[in-house]
Structure formats: structure tokens, C-alpha cells
Design brief:
Chain lengths: 475, 484
């Protein structure tokens, strides 16, 4: 069977008995065999586990039972989501060999919907990075040009979908880690409203910003995945107490009458082709009946700075538990403190250490008010600016990334230029809002460009209407 | 000198003591503060664990509603305001702290601004009473003194990790070791009475740290030291007094008191430096992003308030008015602590003398707990026999011992079986005269002022009466016959 299809059609065909889940799986695993050596999307391929799941789906269909809305859909999981008995590394040496004794809530929900897990995907260590080059196990390469990065931190999940190793995947987005690799790899990527998808079982990077979301081939698939994984989870106290999002019905509603915000004071520095695609996206929406309105977001330019205080501060606390005492790798030493230090020195990569130090400093006595405290104020200002902008527009459009996929190694020695990759995506996380990246043509070197649709809290329905229109309007 | 009598200010030489207590209590919940594992003491190590308790990657805390309720009970019983609050992370490394941070409350605690009233009426301020999670328990094997430094290896039991604690921070209103003992004793009784904790210092379900400083009256507050590892009410008084004297000796010899945390050593009766202010951890507190703010509404607060039982102070006052005994006297303190006050009141309601009931219960019911097995009616009947003169105090005691032993019984029948019957005064007087006659030596000595000699006379009378004579009445008769 061909893999040039969507999750929606796979599930439809499997549920109807027109296709077998094992055949769907085999077709995707054949792609893995052919190209994984060049792409390196996975830390672990779980072919045996996938086969058992696919067989169970086929058996259910044969027995007249409905395996669920994702019946037989091969899905890849970012390797920072806990999977019972399957290594979960966060692409870090410090978690090497650890097999969680429990499944993340998203894993449980996907499995209950009939999904088939093909493997755990590569990421920047502990999701810290924008190119997946910070993985302890080596970078993930862009399926469109394997000399270039896949983006990050969920580069493996983006590449796995782009290379059709999986029909869909899950990533996590703390400052753009779903949307930026989705843009660079030419797939759809969604960062939902904070609290719509349970974080239970997602290894924390920055807890107040982290959110799980899907990578898919099209907007309808993204709606299908998000409907499946969203909804209240009593195991996550920050989970919004509401039923799963209803999105599939929004796809074909069009955008007539909607007001689309264009940020007049958007930080510059984007590649000209990226700016050109954004302009065309506005034109496409206007042609479909939407109105383009100008909005101002004066505090947006401080977003990156605030993010690089808040996220490392939380990370410095979240990553303190990796001490070699209870799980993961340990470097033996003379006493407990020496063991902590040796374990953490050997177990963490440079970027993780850099952020732990930044965050520890930002929270320290005497510096808290000047750094962490001030960053929290900026976070509030950004939310206020967005609130004013959303009085004038239902959604806002920006580029997802200022640049297309860049050559592997070109930015690794310049953390600040790497951080700038997330300038358009970070404010969304600070505000807790949803945003998604939709492929919209190509830029330099014929590489994919993504347009980002931003919406206010729980604005996913209107966000998906606009995203679907962009998908229809792409030239 | 340090001995203080009631109403007299406690002083050591020219110095007064300033002390504030921080008390941690483990809440009596079925499960842990943030997970569904059992909150239970004394089981095999590491059986009450789960991903949250162990701080496994990806695990998230979910607040235990019952723990919040118990914490609110504590706050309300200590006259605090219950207010909207938040949780913070207190970051530090230690092997028995699985997340490398403790979830606690920082600048917005659940309960603030209350007080605890000592039995004598003095109020000790309570600054706050906040929720937090307990750590695991480390056992350091080898080396000396059970400390991590120098040990061969350490064992960690995570059964205690995540157990809900309330930290009750008292204001520095305590001015003597005795007040500190009273504060902790009263607090313990309140916690047990409201069902918040079993509050056993020996088992560690109630832990007490003391902040101690000294000053001359009128001077500003002195530098304080925090004393840890105090494991009993008795040690608390000793540790505070030792520490105050240590600080005074430093000041008197021209040195300064350094702000530090000190460890009480029960064996040598001293405090020792644990860590100085300079090497104190920077806990880098920040808002716990995995939890949402907690804001109990008025309805919930009032529901919890309405469910509070009477507190020991109210119960002592009630018992005092029923018996005429002083509210902070030994009998009432003891009986209320045992939870036997309702029993005493019930005996009174049965028509018996409540004051006698208080004495009997205090003396004979030490092993009976808060729900004595002896039926109220049985004790009431005994007391009625006693107060109507049908049984002497000594006979009543003997009969009661039998009733207590059997878990109940008819006082009249037991008295009859023992041949106890009230003697009239003439019969007793005849016996006394007979005893004087047959123990002339003893009588002579007694008349010469040798009080001990009375024993032989009383013994003889008891023998003749087969124990029926009332000791008090006999003594009174002998005294009146001697003329004194």
C-alpha cells in the first residue's frame, strides 16, 4: 500500500476493512529501512511493538470491533514522552538505559484510539535547541536536503513525518519546538493552548511553557490527532477541565468575515522569500473573504529575552533530579556530592549545562528580581498586548521561522543566532496561546517555508479554519 | 537561677529568653500529598512509592484534597485566617529528596496570623501554618554518628517521601523552657483532638525546631540560633535552656553569637554547630508551575470550621465548671489529655458528684483511653455510695479497682461481697479505744508527738474492722483524742 496518504484516510480504510494495519505499517517501515540511515529521525524504532499493535487493530476489525479513530495509523513519539518498558532518553546520556514504568497520558490515549507506535524520535537534548544538533546521539537531517538541519527541538518527529516513516507524530513545544521543525520540514505542526493536552509523562523542560502537539501531513490530520489527545486529565493539575477539542468540523468552514491580524512592528531579519510567502498568505486569505487588519505588539521584541530567563530557570529546577541516585547513568565517585557532579558533568551536553547555569543564576538570591522577576513581568505584558490585538482580529499571521532549514553545523557555535530561530514562536508559549505552522510554498534553495497562525486561548477552532484555508490557498 | 514560679518572669541572670518554635506535623491522610500512594508509617522500605513519589521524569503532582482540609482544620483551630495560597519549589540537593526540590508554600501560605492559648491563658502567636511534602528517610551506614559524611553507604526509604506536612511557625513569644513545653503539649493535644495528626514526637510525626535568642530586658532582639533534632517535650526544654546559657556565656565573655543552625545531642545534653548562615543553601524559591493556585471558598472554610470538635482549652473549661477543679490543674489536664472528660461529665449527668468522678477517673483510668469500658452508670453508683457515706474512700477505691479490672460491675454487690458496710461513728470509736488500750506504747509515743507511731494504731483498727474502717475517719478520731 502507498504511504502517500493521510492518517485520516488510513484510519478510514482500516476501520472499513479496505486496508490492513500491518500492511500500512510495513509500507512505513520500508521507508525507514530505505532512508533512516540518512535522516536519523529515531532514537529507537519499535518495529516489534508496532507489529503487535497493528495485528491487534486488524484482529479487532476482523472481529467486528472498531479500533478507534486512529485505527492502524503509524505514529512516532518524541523521545521525551514516557513509554512503559521502552527507553525514553530525551536524547541525553544521563537517561541512557532508563525504561519508564508508566505511559504518558498522550501515549495511553493514542493507543486507545488504535494508533500504532513505530518509534521514539530524536530531539535536542531535553528539548533544548532549534536544530536537533544538541542530541547526544547526533543530529536529525532534513529529509528535503540531508545536508541541512530538521529544526528542533522536535526535529526527529518532524523528519519522521516528512520522510513518511510515520503518518503522524507527536512533539513538544516550549518555545517553538513543534512549529519551527514543522516549517523547516514542510509539514503541519500544532502547539495547542497550554492545558489542552496533558503533560503527564512528558519529561519536563520548562513546565509552564511545555505543551504536546501533533505533526501531520495536512490540517485535517492535525485536527484528528488533537481531538484524540486533548481533553482534561486528572493527572495533570494544569490541564484545563474541559472535554476534548472539536476541530474536524471547522476544516471546511472557510474564512469569510474573519479578521486576520498583521503585526506592524514585527521583529525584522527574515529571509526575503519568507516575507514574500507571508504576504502571499495574507493575499490568499483576503481572496477567500477575510479582512486583513493591522495590530501592534510592542512587547513582542522582549519575548526572546524573557523566554531565555523563564525557561532556563524552570529547567534548572526540573533537571536537578538527574543526580545518578535512582535511575539513568551514574558516574561513581568518592562521596555523594562528587558523584552528583561527576554524573551531571558526564551526562549533560553543553547546551543543557549552559541553560542550567543561566536558570540557576536567574533564580539566585540577589538576582531574582532583576532577572526572573522582571521576565515574569514581561510575560504579563506580552499577554496584555495579545489581548488587545485579539480585540481587533480573530487570528494573527506571522512567519513560523525567519529562515529556511540551514546547513548542519552552521550555527552550533553561535547560540544567540540559534536562539533567534524562535523569535516568532516564543511569544505564543509565554502567553499560553495556541499556534500552528502550515507549509506555504518554498523559499531559498527550494526549501519549505511555514506560515504561522496564532490564536487566543482556546482559539483552536478558528485557528484550524484559517490553517485549512491557507492549505487550500497555497500556490 | 532559672527556676520560675507561676507569674514570675523567667530570667537567667540579667538575661531574658526569646524563643519561637517551628513545628512540623505529618497529616493523618490515607494517601500522600501529591500522589495516591499510602501514607503509612512502619512498613517495609520503599513499598509506598509511585512515579510521583520517586520524582520520575514526566511525573506530575496532584494536590490531595483531604490534606488541604486537615491543614485548614489546623489553621482554624489555631485561630488563623485561611487565605488563597500558592505552592513554591524549594530547590536543594539531597539523596532522599527525589526531585531535588521540595514542594512547599512560600510567600502565600494557606493559614496566617493565629495564636495558641497556653493553659494558663497566655497567647503565643502563630505566624503561619503551611502545607508541604516530607522527604524520604536516609540511613547512613558506617562512619560515626549516623551522619552522611564519613559513612560507608546510605540507604533511602521513600515511603515517607511526599507525606503531607503542615509547618506551624510560631512567633517568638515564648519566654521560658516551661512555656515551650506547654506550647508543644497543647499543640499536640489540639492536633490529636481535631484528627489532623497523631503528633508523636518519638515517631517523628511531630518535629520541633526552636529558634532561641537572649537579651537584656529592653534591648533589641539578640542573634538567634535554630535548634534541630529535638525529639521529646522534655528534650525541648533542656535544649532551649542549654542554648540560652551557651549564648549568655558567649556574650559575657565578650564574644558574639553567630546566626547558625545547631543540632541538639541528647546524649551529651549540648547543641553543636550544624551549619552557619554563610553556608546556608540558596533555595531559589519560585512558583511551582505544575500546580495551580489554591483558593478555598468561604463555603468550604465554613464547612471545615463547623466540623471542628471542641478544643482542649474549651473542654478543660467545661470540666472545670462541672467539677470546681482548676482548669490548668493536674487532674483536668490529665483527664482531658486522655480524652476522658466527656466520660467524667457523663458520670456527673448520671447524678453522681463530678468532682469525685474526676478524681477516680484520673487515678484509676490511666489505661482506659478515651472510651473507658466501665459503664458510666457503674461508676456513678459507686460514687453515690461513697458520697452518701455508705462506703469509705478507701473502700470505694478497692471496689473501683475491681470494677475497672472487670470492665464494669455493681458497686453495691461488690461491696457486700467484700463485707464492706458503713460503720457508724460509735462502732468506730469503740474500735479506736480498744486499739489505744491494747497498744499503749504506741499511743504514748504518738501523744509525745511521734507521728509515725500512728501507723501501728491505724493498722490495728483496720485489722479489727477487716478493712471496713475509713482511714480518714480513724486518723481524725485519733487526732481528736490526742487533742491536736
Amino acid at each position: 500500500m502507498s504511504v502517500e496518504t493521510t492518517a485520516f484516510r488510513i484510519a478510514d480504510d482500516v476501520r472499513a476493512g479496505r486496508a490492513r494495519a500491518v500492511d500500512v505499517l510495513d509500507a512505513h517501515l520500508a521507508n525507514v529501512t530505505a532512508r533512516e540511515g540518512d535522516v536519523h529521525a529515531f532514537n529507537t524504532v519499535t518495529a516489534d511493538e508496532a507489529r503487535r499493535m497493528a495485528e491487534a487493530v486488524d484482529a479487532a476489525v476482523a472481529a467486528g470491533r472498531d479500533p478507534g479513530p486512529l485505527a492502524g495509523v503509524p505514529i512516532a513519539l518524541k523521545d521525551n514522552m514516557c513509554t512503559r518498558g521502552i527507553p525514553t532518553t530525551c536524547s541525553s546520556r544521563i537517561l541512557e538505559g532508563w525504561k519508564p514504568p508508566y505511559d504518558a497520558t498522550v501515549v495511553t490515549r493514542l493507543a486507545a484510539a488504535g494508533a500504532v507506535f513505530v518509534g521514539k524520535t530524536n530531539l535536542d537534548e531535553f528539548a533544548m535547541g532549534s536544530s536537533t544538533e544538541n542530541s547526544a546521539f547526533g543530529p536529525t537531517f532534513n529529509p528535503h536536503d540531508v545536508t541541512r538541519v530538521s529544526g528542533g527541538s522536535s526535529g526527529g518527529s518532524a523528519a519522521a513525518v516528512a520522510a513518511r516513516f510515520a503518518a503522524a507524530s507527536l512533539g513538544s513545544d516550549t518555545g517553538g519546538s513543534i512549529r519551527q521543525p514543522a516549517a523547516l520540514c514542510g509539514v503541519v505542526g500544532v502547539k495547542p493552548t497550554y492545558g489542552t493536552v496533558s503533560r503527564y509523562g512528558l519529561v519536563a523542560f520548562a513546565s509552564s511553557l511545555d505543551q504536546i502537539g501533533p505533526f501531520t501531513h495536512d490540517v485535517r490530520d492535525a485536527a484528528l490527532l488533537l481531538e484524540t489527545i486533548s481533553g482534561h486529565d486528572p493527572l495533570d493539575s494544569t490541564s484545563i477541565p474541559q472535554p476534548p477539542l472539536q476541530l474536524l468540523g471547522e476544516i471546511d468552514r472557510g474564512v469569510a468575515g474573519l479578521r486576520i491580524g498583521r503585526i506592524t512592528d514585527l521583529p525584522g531579519g527574515s529571509e526575503p522569500e519568507v516575507e514574500q510567502r507571508l504576504a502571499e498568505a495574507f493575499e490568499a486569505l483576503a481572496a477567500a473573504g477575510a479582512t486583513i487588519v493591522d495590530v501592534e505588539l510592542p512587547s513582542l521584541k522582549y519575548g526572546l529575552t524573557a523566554y531565555y530567563l523563564i525557561a532556563p530557570a524552570e529547567a534548572s529546577s526540573n533537571l536537578a533530579r538527574y543526580d545518578g541516585v535512582r535511575y539513568g547513568s551514574r558516574v561513581e565517585a568518592a562521596d555523594t556530592n562528587a558523584m552528583y557532579m561527576a554524573t551531571r558533568a558526564a551526562g549533560f551536553g553543553d547546551e543543557v549545562k549552559r541553560r542550567i547555569m543561566l536558570g540557576t543564576y536567574a533564580l539566585s538570591a540577589g538576582y531574582y528580581d532583576a532577572y526572573y522577576g522582571k521576565a515574569l513581568k514581561v510575560r504579563r505584558l506580552i499577554s496584555d498586548d495579545f489581548a488587545r490585538a485579539y480585540e481587533r482580529a480573530e487570528v494573527i499571521l506571522t512567519p513560523t521561522s525567519p529562515i529556511v532549514a540551514f546547513p548542519v553545523g552552521s550555527k552550533v557555535d553561535d547560540p544567540l543566532s540559534m536562539y533567534l530561530c524562535d523569535v516568532f514562536t516564543i511569544p505564543t508559549n509565554l502567553a499560553g496561546h495556541p499556534a500552528m505552522s502550515v507549509p506555504f510554498g518554498t523559499g531559498a534553495h527550494g526549501l519549505p517555508v511555514g506560515v504561522q497562525v496564532l490564536a487566543p486561548t482556546l482559539g483552536e477552532p478558528v485557528m484550524f479554519r484559517v490553517a485549512a484555508e491557507l492549505e487550500r490557498g497555497v500556490r | 537561677m532559672s527556676e520560675s514560679t507561676p507569674g514570675e518572669k523567667f530570667m537567667i541572670g540579667e538575661y531574658e529568653l526569646v524563643c519561637g518554635l517551628e513545628v512540623h506535623v505529618e497529616l493523618a491522610t490515607a494517601t500522600k500529598l501529591f500522589s495516591a500512594s499510602a501514607n503509612r508509617f512502619g512498613d517495609e522500605p520503599n513499598v509506598h512509592i509511585d512515579p510521583v513519589t520517586l520524582g520520575l521524569p514526566g511525573a506530575l503532582p496532584v494536590l490531595n484534597r483531604r490534606a488541604v482540609e486537615l491543614a485548614m482544620r489546623i489553621g482554624l483551630a489555631l485561630n488563623c485566617s485561611v487565605q488563597p495560597c500558592t505552592f513554591h519549589r524549594k530547590n536543594y540537593f539531597y539523596p532522599d529528596m527525589p526531585k531535588a526540590y521540595q514542594i512547599s508554600q512560600y510567600d502565600q501560605p494557606l493559614n496566617v496570623d493565629g495564636w495558641l492559648e497556653l493553659p494558663g491563658g497566655k497567647r503565643i502567636g502563630v505566624e503561619r501554618a503551611h502545607l508541604e511534602e516530607d522527604t524520604g528517610k536516609s540511613t547512613h551506614v558506617g562512619g560515626s554518628g549516623g551522619r552522611i559524611h564519613g559513612s560507608d553507604h546510605s540507604l533511602i526509604d521513600f515511603n515517607r517521601a511526599g507525606v503531607p506536612l503542615v509547618e506551624i511557625v510560631g512567633r517568638p513569644d515564648i519566654t521560658s523552657p516551661e512555656e515551650a513545653r506547654q506550647y508543644v503539649t497543647e499543640l499536640r493535644q489540639i492536633l490529636v483532638a481535631i484528627g489532623a495528626s497523631d503528633a508523636k514526637m518519638e515517631e517523628g510525626s511531630m518535629r520541633c525546631d526552636a529558634n532561641v535568642s537572649v537579651r537584656k530586658p529592653g534591648d533589641p532582639l539578640g542573634t538567634r540560633c535554630e535548634i534541630k533534632n529535638v525529639n521529646s517535650v522534655r528534650s525541648l526544654g533542656r535544649a532551649i535552656e542549654y542554648e540560652a546559657r551557651r549564648q549568655i556565656a558567649l556574650i559575657e565573655s565578650g564574644e558574639r553569637v553567630r546566626q547558625e543552625t545547631r543540632h541538639w545531642d541528647e546524649t551529651d545534653g549540648r547543641t553543636h554547630t550544624l551549619r552557619t548562615k554563610e553556608d546556608a543553601d540558596d533555595y531559589r524559591y519560585f512558583l511551582e508551575p505544575d500546580l495551580v493556585p489554591l483558593a478555598p471558598d468561604e463555603a468550604w472554610i465554613e464547612e471545615v470550621r463547623a466540623s471542628l470538635p471542641s478544643l482542649p482549652r474549651e473542654r478543660r473549661a467545661r470540666l472545670s465548671s462541672a467539677t470546681g477543679a482548676p482548669a490548668d490543674g493536674e487532674a483536668i489536664m490529665v483527664v482531658v489529655e486522655r480524652g476522658q472528660d466527656d466520660y467524667v461529665l457523663a458520670v456527673g449527668d448520671h447524678g453522681a458528684d463530678a468532682a469525685r468522678a474526676l478524681v477516680h477517673v484520673k487515678e484509676a483510668f490511666a489505661e482506659q483511653g478515651s472510651e473507658p469500658r466501665v459503664p458510666v452508670a457503674d461508676l456513678a453508683r459507686l460514687i453515690t455510695l461513697e458520697t452518701s457515706g455508705k462506703l469509705t474512700a478507701t473502700q470505694a477505691k478497692t471496689v473501683l479497682a475491681e470494677i475497672v479490672g472487670a470492665g464494669g460491675g455493681d458497686a453495691e454487690a461488690i461491696a457486700a461481697a467484700k463485707g464492706f458496710e458503713a460503720m457508724d461513728t460509735s462502732e468506730l470509736e469503740a474500735m479506736v479505744d480498744q486499739a489505744i488500750a491494747s497498744n499503749a506504747d504506741a499511743w504514748a509515743k504518738y501523744c509525745a508527738g511521734e507521728e509515725k507511731a500512728m501507723g501501728a494504731l491505724v493498722g490495728a483498727i483496720m485489722k479489727t474492722s477487716k478493712g471496713k474502717a475509713d482511714g480518714k475517719a480513724v486518723t481524725a478520731l485519733l487526732q481528736s483524742k490526742r487533742g491536736s
